[in-house]
């Protein structure tokens, strides 16, 4: 029984450890249109994912019901939106 609990405990620790402590409403309010991606990453850390085409990148920090999304054109922020931040 103890051996079966160890993988579950490690998974839970890993999931909790993946939460980005920088995902706060205060940090979201620091973001400004025109910032470089490097400036945004200095505030939020590395994004969970980014994808794009034709010089437009869509990046996400966080996941599910707690996230910040950013759109970049040529490396400059165009728009931000958030969900589930306090």
Please describe what this structure looks like:
It is a single chain. The longest helix has 16 residues, at 2-17. The chain has one domain: Beta-lactamase Inhibitory Protein, Chain:B, domain 1 (2-Layer Sandwich). The protein starts with a helix and ends with a strand. The chain is an alpha+beta fold and 86 residues long. A 4-stranded antiparallel beta sheet has the order 1-2-3-4, covered by helices on one side. It is built from 3 helices and 4 strands; from the N terminus they run αααββββ.
Shape type: globular
Number of domains: 1
Q: Termini separation (Å)?
A: 39 Å
With strands numbered from the N-terminus, the spatial order across the biggest sheet is 1-2-3-4
Reported by name, the CATH topology is Beta-lactamase Inhibitory Protein, Chain:B, domain 1
CATH class: Alpha Beta
What's the gist of this structure?
This protein has three helices and four strands; from the N terminus they run αααββββ. By secondary structure, the protein is α+β, with helices and mostly antiparallel strands. Pfam families: BamE.
Which structural traits does this protein have?
4 strands; four-stranded antiparallel beta sheet; alpha+beta; Beta-lactamase Inhibitory Protein, Chain:B, domain 1; 86 residues; 3 helices; Outer membrane protein assembly factor BamE domain-containing protein
Topology:
Layout: H1 2-17, H2 25-30, H3 37-44, E1 49-53, E2 56-63, E3 66-73, E4 76-83
Antiparallel strand pairs: 1-2, 2-3, 3-4
